[in-house]
Structures are given as C-alpha cells and as structure tokens.
Amino acid sequence: MALIGYARVSSSEQSTVLQVDALRQAGCDRVFEDVASGARDDRPGLQAALDFVRDGDVLVVWKLDRLGRSLSHLIASVTELENRGVGFRSITEAIDTTTAGGRLVFHLFGALGQFERDLILERTRAGLAAAAARGRKGGRKPVVSPSMLGRAKAMIAQGLTVREAAGRLKIGKSTLYDALRGEKVSPSTQE
C-alpha cells in the first residue's frame, strides 16, 4: 500500500510547501502538485496522481477542497477511487475511507449532498408552480413579437421570401419559419 499525495494551490502567488510538508509527514511516498483553480477540469497534477495510484494505494490530500470542485464532484471522485480499490484520506478533516468510520463519514457527506440537490430541485419546482399559478411563464421571451409576425406575414403576402422578410426584420430565417409554423401560416417556399 502506497500513500500518494496531491497538493493544489489556486494561483502562482501561492505555494504548495505547507501542503507538501503535511503530505510528506503523513507518509506520502510521492506527491503530485497543481497550480490551478479547483473549478478547472484540466488539472495535470491530479490526472497524473489518478493515473499513478493502483489498487490498494491511498490518495491523500491536505484538505477536502484540494481535490473536489464541489461536494458532488468530490463524492464522484472518491467513489471512482473506491471503485478502483484506491482509498482516500484528508489530513485536515481526518477522513480516511480505508477505515469503517471514514467510509461512514464520507457516505454521510454523500447523503447530505444528495439531500441538498433534492431540496434545490424541490424548491425550483415549487417556484415554477407558484409562478405558473400567477400566470407567469418561464423561459425566454419570444424573439418574434405578435406585431413583428404580422409585419412578416404582410411582407410575405406582398411576395417577399421568408429570408427577405427575416432580413428586413433583423431576425434569423429559422426563427421566422418557427414563428410562422407556430401560427399555422404557410410561408412562401421561395428562398
């Protein structure tokens, strides 16, 4: 079993020295580093660490936020490690998925993350239902207003093509076709 460390700082003005020292003190044989925002997907040091760890190894970080962009990303990352037979340890939070207690704590994090996502979804649905009850409709406002559609129909009736009418109204041809289809009007077949 090898302990493999991962250290990350967000900017070049910061240093990984504190993290690397803590990882070495924790017994890490090798430490991979990144200078990158945690929100970035492309972290070469993390990818190298993930490629390096093998079944039975433990990936060690100084703090949870060094690995994951968000709680859901952190849970997905640790679950992927677990599926590969790789443990996970966070020094600061004292979480170690190679122990029963550490797995319990981590699964509680996962359950709390899922609970949070469910609450957000529930509130969103309730908000949309309340808005609909007040007569409000979500989504973008239509590009083609009723008056614009009327002008377009008049132009087409005078012999202009849909493309020409759309150009004069400064809207896309496809947008005008969609609006005309929604009105069940047959546009000119000329281009």
- Helix content range: 40-55%
CATH topology of the largest domain: Rossmann fold
Beta-strand segment tally: 5
CA radius of gyration is 28 Å
Task: Determine the N-to-C terminus distance.
Answer: 70 Å
Outline the low-pLDDT stretches: none
The CATH superfamily name of the largest domain is: Resolvase, N-terminal catalytic domain
The helix-strand sequence is: EHEHEHEEHHHH
Spatial order of strands in the largest sheet:
2-1-3-4-5
Number of domains: 2
The average pLDDT value, as a whole number, equals 86
The CATH architecture of the largest domain would be 3-Layer(aba) Sandwich
Helical stretch tally:
7
Largest sheet descriptor: 5 strands, mixed
Structural class: alpha/beta
Shape: elongated
